[in-house]
Design a protein that fits this description.
By secondary structure, the chain is mainly alpha-helical. 42% of the residues lie in helices and 9% in strands. A two-stranded antiparallel ribbon has the order 1-14. Strands 2-3 form a two-stranded antiparallel ribbon. Strands 4-5 form a two-stranded antiparallel sheet.
Length: 446
């Protein structure tokens, strides 16, 4: 009986023929359209030319000033590579690469994922791309990372949907992706509690003890866990764990602009770093997405506008901040890495282009203004082989030709979602995701 159900499901998703691409937005000018495509294509090259050759996955980082930092040219990342898979679909759709080349790269990635280290179905944060062996992210983080795995699965499901009605090679690849998705043991990562845990290690087991409660960048993990046809969680894990029995919601969270309200208890001051409105929503379509805790389109749009208005008001008087120069999120910083955000404590005078560019769906006018300013007025300082550098600070005269996979990927994907809705339509076409959202009492209008 179980075998028949599996075959039946495979046939159902292979027979579905969703309309993936909606009408394109109209740009204000031909020059704007050309610049949009140029930036998107350059950023895409991070995942194409810049990929680790054996695995096909995205390197964790690329530094053009000294090639690879700390001799880690073989370090590949699961979450950033999930964003990279989605970027490959954009590359094929935009004809940055041929469909044949894109399929070959995805096949290489899938082959790596089938044999690389996994831990109860979850992949680690980092591997050695040459060997497939886990590279510890920290001492005890040497096993499964369910959040990064969820970013990978989000990308793989989009690829499955994109390939499922193709030729024999593509259909076979879609089925292999389906197997990878079904072997992620989301239920294991509850540790027999009503919450999902971020990590499990074969040597340290649950010692990291990171129960994931909202609100942050991890909503997609709960959506996928509820949607899994093989290792699903109960709805109570979402409502009691992520939503903390409703404590996630207050009405409303105070912000500096009373018209821009946020309703999630877990949100940091003024909404926190902007990647919270990007990572889970690369595939999960926030348009008309609601549950008992939030209207996610309003939440994300307000989050982006708060970020923008903070930079325009510029309470710490940093050089360069303004209507054409904004965006605070986690990125490289003048000293190491930091979760930049719109608050007196978290704003360090560092602009991260991914913040504004990945917010195109929420703030198209403001994002376009920033992109045009950086490219037209600052290109020599902030733009290189793979698009805009990860971060810069005019206040500190700090400009480094460095990139991070987890920041470059959302640029490519969210710019495409703004233009055509490609990845949103692909992900939301998954029958399992529809069932999972219904299970958690989400409503969508599609």
């Amino acid at each position: 009986m179980k075998k028949k159900c599996t075959i039946k499901f495979a046939c159902l998703f292979l027979l579905a023929i969703p309309l993936f691409v909606s009408a394109q937005v109209k740009f204000a000018s031909k020059a704007d359209s050309q610049l949009f495509t140029k930036v998107q294509q350059a950023t895409f090259q991070y995942f194409w030319e810049g990929a680790e050759p054996n695995s096909g996955l995205a390197r964790e980082r690329l530094h053009l000033d000294n090639n690879y930092p700390q001799n880690d040219k073989s370090t590949v990342t699961s979450g950033g590579s999930g964003f990279g898979v989605m970027s490959l679909l954009v590359g094929m759709e935009r004809k940055f690469i041929s469909r044949k080349s894109g399929v070959q790269r995805i096949e290489k990635i899938v082959q790596f994922l089938e044999t690389a280290d996994r831990f109860h179905g979850a992949w680690p944060h980092w591997w050695n791309g040459e060997t497939g062996k886990v590279k510890p992210f920290s001492k005890k983080d040497n096993g499964g990372d369910l959040v990064e795995t969820s970013y990978m699965v989000q990308g793989l499901l989009c690829a499955r949907q994109y390939l499922q009605n193709g030729d024999a090679q593509e259909r076979a690849l879609a089925l292999r992706i389906d197997v990878l998705w079904k072997t992620v043991e989301f239920d294991w990562y509850t540790n027999n509690k009503k919450v999902l845990y971020w990590h499990w290690s074969p040597t340290y087991e649950w010692e990291m003890n990171f129960a994931v409660r909202g609100y942050n960048e991890c909503l997609i993990m709960y959506i996928l866990a509820a949607s899994s046809p093989t290792h699903s969680i109960d709805a109570a894990v979402y409502h009691e764990g992520w939503a903390q029995n409703g404590k996630i919601k207050v009405d409303p969270i105070p912000t500096d602009n009373k018209a821009l309200q946020l309703h999630h208890q877990g949100s940091a001051e003024n909404g926190g770093p902007l990647f919270w409105s990007h990572y889970s929503y690369l595939g999960l379509d926030p348009r008309n997405l609601k549950d008992r805790y939030a209207d996610y389109w309003k939440e994300n749009t307000n989050h982006a506008r708060i970020n923008y208005e903070w930079c325009v008001s510029n309470p710490k008087h940093f050089i360069g901040y303004g209507e054409n120069n904004w965006g605070l999120t986690a990125s490289y910083s003048v000293k190491g890495y930091s979760g930049h955000a719109p608050s007196l404590k978290k704003d360090l005078g560092v602009i991260s282009p991914t913040a504004a560019l990945s917010s195109f769906p929420y703030t198209p006018k403001e994002s376009m203004a920033a992109m045009k300013h950086w490219y037209t007025d600052m290109k020599d300082k902030v733009y290189g082989d793979y698009g805009f550098y990860d971060a810069f600070s005019e206040t500190d005269n700090w400009y480094q030709p460095r990139y991070l996979a987890i920041d470059q990927g959302p640029i490519v994907v969210m710019m495409e979602n703004y233009r055509t809705g490609l990845l949103w339509n692909l992900f939301m076409s998954c029958p399992e995701i529809k069932a999972g959202l219904q299970k958690l009492d989400f409503t969508t209008v599609r």
